[in-house]
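[step 3/7] inverse_fold.run input=structure_tokens len=449
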């Protein structure tokens, strides 16, 4: 009898492990979700930070994959990780001065290296020559500057012994390899143990570092020789994160796009969306993540850096379609933001100092306001003000189709009046000075009737 009971119990347990947590998430109304996300939709601008061992090779955070490097050969970066100039307070100041309101740091990227003193691995920062818990100092410094803190956590792990080799792995097989070939290769590896490892680590990250506002899981690639929700137990991860940090925001890379409550915002990467993205016909919260150049991790020889004007445009463009911008910095192996990044942050900050009113709390303008050529419109629904960003500076008069709705207009950077009038044909225009103001992208602030 006793034996039968034990067997029955074992069967029940194995059924639960095979089909992890398919139960529903806690229900939330659309209003409740909007309320939970309201700080984020108002703040609009965050800093992404990709930092890990890949800062040493300095040729892309996927270097281990691209060059098919083995754990043994990658070890030299671990052995030499010693960012002696790491000064999280300076980073936090730079982010704040650029106008960023939140930050998302890679706690672990695909290489598997952990930036905190995790109990569950030796492959962590405290075992490198640097020896200190980076996450701890980082979190304190950014919080002290008033930024909300989030963690990126890679679902992918190219170091963990139980993470099965798949088509995205450095030790992948040829593109036409069969599932059987992969199964043979992965003999002895156990993804159930890896799932447990992830949960233990997420628990550490969301328990030991105070309030964490965002968790950015990355990423899924379901299908042949790929990985998706079952491999990660995505639903279990979402539940865990929400149970530890009830207000936390979760991105949409867990392969749960069709699951109600499985994500909070969508994450178009390195693209300019052409309109406010929709899911099932509904506009959804979204955030584009973008690099200064072509890499997330520090890439010494990469030179395709965007200009300050392009970056500011990216920010207001996102806001004008109801979205956020998460702009990435890849710190160096010494622990610095390299000069190219600092120059751009400074330029954005210079602009934000005078113009952030067109970003914070703003969103897409109501449909009745059509943006004149070479302008981007944002709108603050609370103050009922419209912001017209002049991408290419016009000469003198400029026709504005919504002129009859203007109550008062001024340049945002200096609060100087902009006159507006209607001509004999009923066409409205504003009068701008010939000289372009000393502002990367001048903004006209319009108080609406
Ligand atoms: C991708 C890449 C990764 C980067 C991320 C940022 O998924 O794998 O290197 O961290 O995008 O969005």
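[step 3/7] decode complete -> sequence:
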């Amino acid at each position: 009898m006793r034996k039968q009971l034990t067997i029955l119990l074992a069967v029940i347990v194995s059924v639960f492990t095979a089909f992890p947590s398919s139960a529903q998430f806690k229900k939330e109304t659309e209003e409740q979700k909007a309320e939970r996300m309201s700080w984020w939709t108002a703040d609009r601008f965050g800093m992404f930070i990709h930092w890990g061992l890949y800062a040493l090779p300095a040729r892309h955070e996927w270097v281990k994959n691209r060059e098919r490097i083995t754990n043994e050969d990658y070890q030299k970066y671990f052995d030499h990780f010693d960012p002696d100039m790491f000064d999280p307070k300076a980073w936090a100041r730079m982010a704040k001065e650029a106008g960023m309101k939140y930050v998302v740091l890679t706690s672990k990227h695909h290489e598997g290296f952990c930036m905190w003193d995790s109990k569950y691995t030796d492959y962590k920062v405290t075992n490198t020559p640097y020896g200190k818990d980076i996450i701890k100092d980082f979190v304190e410094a950014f919080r002290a500057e008033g930024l909300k803190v989030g963690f990126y956590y890679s679902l992918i792990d190219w170091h963990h012994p139980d993470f099965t080799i798949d088509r995205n792995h450095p030790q992948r097989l040829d593109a036409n390899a069969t599932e059987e070939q992969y199964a043979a290769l992965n003999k002895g590896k156990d993804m159930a143990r890896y799932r447990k490892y992830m949960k233990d680590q997420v628990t550490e990250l969301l328990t030991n570092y105070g309030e964490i506002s965002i968790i950015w899981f990355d990423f899924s690639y379901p299908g042949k020789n790929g990985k998706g929700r079952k491999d990660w137990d995505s639903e279990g991860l979402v539940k865990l994160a929400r149970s530890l940090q009830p207000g936390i925001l979760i991105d949409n890379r867990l392969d749960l796009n069709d699951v109600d409550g499985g994500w909070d915002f969508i994450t178009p990467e390195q693209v300019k969306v052409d309109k406010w993205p929709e899911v099932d016909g509904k506009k959804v919260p979204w955030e584009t993540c973008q690099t200064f150049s072509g890499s997330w991790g520090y890439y010494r020889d990469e030179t395709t850096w965007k200009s300050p004007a392009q970056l500011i445009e990216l920010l207001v463009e996102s806001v004008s379609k109801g979205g956020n911008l998460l702009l990435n910095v890849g710190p160096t192996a010494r622990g610095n933001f390299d000069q190219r990044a600092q120059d751009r942050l400074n330029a954005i900050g210079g602009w934000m100092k005078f113009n952030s009113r067109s970003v914070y709390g703003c969103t897409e303008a109501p449909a009745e306001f059509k943006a004149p050529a070479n302008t981007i419109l944002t709108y603050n629904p609370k103050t009922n003000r419209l912001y017209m960003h002049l991408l290419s500076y016009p000469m003198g008069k400029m026709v504005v189709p919504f002129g009859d709705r203007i109550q008062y207009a001024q340049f945002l950077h200096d609060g100087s009046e902009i006159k507006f009038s209607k001509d004999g044909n009923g066409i409205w225009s504003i009068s701008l000075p010939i000289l372009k103001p000393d502002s990367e992208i001048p903004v006209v602030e319009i108080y609406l009737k």
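[step 4/7] annotate
DSSP finds 13 helices and 16 strands in the chain.
The chain has two domains: 25-358, 375-448.
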